Amino acid sequence: xxxxxxxxxxxxxLMGLKTSHHRGSFIDDLTAFATQHQAQHWRGTFAEFLSDxxxxxxxxxxxxxxxxxxxxxxxxxDAPRITRGTGEPEPTATALFAGELFGIDxxxxxxxxxxxxxxxxxxxxxxxxxxxxxxxGGKSSLVILLKRGLEEYSHxxxxxxxxxxxxxxxxxxxxxxxxxxxxxxxxxxxVDIQGELSPYARARLDDEFQGDFMRFPVERIFLSxxxxxxxxxxxxxDPTTADIADLVGSVDxxxxxxxGDEGDPRAWSWSGAVYAASRGVLEMIExxxxxxxxxxxxxxxxxxxxxxxxxxxxxxxDETILAHTNLAEFNKFLQEKENEALLDRMVIVKVPYTLSxxxxxxxxxxxxxxxxxxxxxxxxxxxxxxxxxxxxxxxxQKPSREGLDLTKKLKLYSxxxxxxxxxxxxxxxxxxxxxxxxxxxxxxxxxxAISNAITRxxxxxxxxxxxxxxxxxxxxxxxxxxxxxxxxxxxxxxxxRKDFYNRxxxxxxxxxxxxxxxxxxxxxxxxxxxxxxxxxxxxxxxDPITGxxxxxxxxxxxxxxxxxxxxxxxxxxxxxxxxxxxxxxxKAGEKFTLDNHSxxxxxxxQYLFEERRDVLRLVTSKARPDDEAEHKISxxxxxxxxxxxxxEHSAKEALNYVTTLLSQE
Length: 665
Ligand SMILES: Nc1ncnc2c1ncn2[C@@H]1O[C@H](COP(=O)(O)OP(=O)(O)OP(=O)(O)O)[C@@H](O)[C@H]1O
Ligand SMILES: [Mg+2]
Prior knowledge:
Elements: H1 9-14, H2 23-40, E1 43-45, H3 46-53, H4 58-61, H5 65-78, H6 105-119, E2 128-133, H7 139-153, E3 161-164, H8 182-189, H9 199-209, E4 217-221, E5 231-234, H10 245-248, E6 250-251, H11 253-259, E7 268-269, H12 273-276, E8 281-284, H13 292-304, E9 306-307, E10 315-316, E11 320-326, H14 327-335, H15 340-343, E12 346-350, H16 357-369, H17 372-375, E13 378-379, H18 383-395, H19 406-413, H20 426-432, H21 443-457, E14 461-462, H22 464-476, H23 483-515, H24 518-537, E15 541-542, E16 549-550, H25 554-562, H26 571-587, H27 598-620, H28 627-644, H29 648-664
Helix pairs in contact: 5-6, 5-7, 16-18, 18-22, 18-23, 21-22, 22-23, 23-28, 23-29, 24-25, 24-26, 24-27, 25-27, 27-29, 28-29
Bound molecules: adenosine-5'-triphosphate and magnesium ion.
The site of magnesium ion (MG) has 2 residues, from helix 7.
């Protein structure tokens, strides 16, 4: 039975990552999982390992932790059925992060490059990977995904790992092979063995098997953070009480009594995080907060692949250290001169906030959809985008370039068209402000503000206006911000509303209004056509009801044409062209509609909109609208609800808002 990453989707289900399953099929999955899990298990003596397992693929069994992580990333890239996020297979090694982390691809690629280089044997593998970024910028999430990816990968055939049974370091069985026989091993299997036997395994080998390593039991292992196999995590608590024993263990007094010798490795508590992480990854949270003594130990561990514990010879350990820290801590660390040498032994990858509001909006959508408190709340269609625009504005540096302002810069960064610039300008504009995205508002700040507004006011419907007020409130009540910054951020709220929201909401109302009056638009079009035909033929128009004739309504024609800036001198050729198109449609037996002529479409749309403005004005007027007006208003409102993602409350608010905007124009 071969197992790939797609099979381990079952595993993912069990970890609660997908919940859309029917109960019956869940039990099937559970059964399949249990069967498969059992099938994957392997246990035997070292002799059996050498004959049955090793020859299949010796190079896989001598991989370093960096190679292993890199292979895992490639397995995600190559897995045929990765259906997270968009449901499309992701062609890059970033597939592991697809649908989970947005807008930080270049940081992700740098992380992948680190593993790629380290896997190829470059010296970067001897340096610790430090993720550096602003608060709640996705550093922990990135590491969590890597850890989950490793756990899954270890269940696949390609990711199979074997270890000496019972070893607290889950060390490679090949460590048993004595140094004197390693050259022969190399010439037989074509690969090198890196590891050394741990003191624990050595004691057991001598005592239990009298040195006969062929009898030492070996088993397949599965990386698991919960079981402390190949995934370790260390978070500094109080630095004054933090003990290096948390990392490397200490004498286990309860065992000393049984074993009778403090120096016996079996009387040592191997519970330290560095042992748990052996063969996989060690996550160091807030690494720069740890004592310097810890840092030296960790740097030696990455560089030399060993740790020194008082009573034992050097202990060989192969693991990848993934550390993260925030900017404030990093700057503090930089100030101390003696830290320079330490920095030299780290590979620093900056993880800035995204600067595309579309990616920021994806983050919010993910956070909102995963929080039960939000599930019953209706968001108007612009809440999330508008909050994202605000967030990005706080992260951008003021452009120095002629003709570029914050709004334009934001649009360019989000792949929108901006007059006078093209997408090819973006890299240069970015280069003009290095460190952009390392400050500003965090996703957590925004989500907290929204969630407070919802719970405090018991909202069932959150509108863009509610959201702006919630953010304003959060800014004003933030104790960490100084007055100048508060003022600036509130100005960003105003800017987001003025340059983005107003346009979006107007467009919605405009479109809804227009769509509710399709018939009227068609009638207008036909009227326009009748009038220009009469005008071109220099004849009168006959009124269909009264039968009387009158000259063409030039005022009507011009007011339509002016909407798209057709000049007095250009009107003739425009009209001739419209008639020509109408004839073509007519000859083909088709009806001439607005879809046949995009400029006329625009003109009629504008014309109708301005005519309907008066209806909109009734929305806010004190006078009660008559039945007909009422009917027209509710037609627009309904369309907003049906087609543009509003609910009743937010549709009303949008209509009101747009009316106020119109009255200011
Ligand atoms: N680029 C992003 N894509 C998707 N989600 C993100 C992104 N950045 C942050 N998040 C989300 O924001 C929340 C906070 O992120 P996370 O805890 O990973 O940040 P962090 O960098 O570790 O922050 P801290 O420095 O405060 O520990 C998480 O729920 C995470 O999923
Ligand atoms: Mg974190």
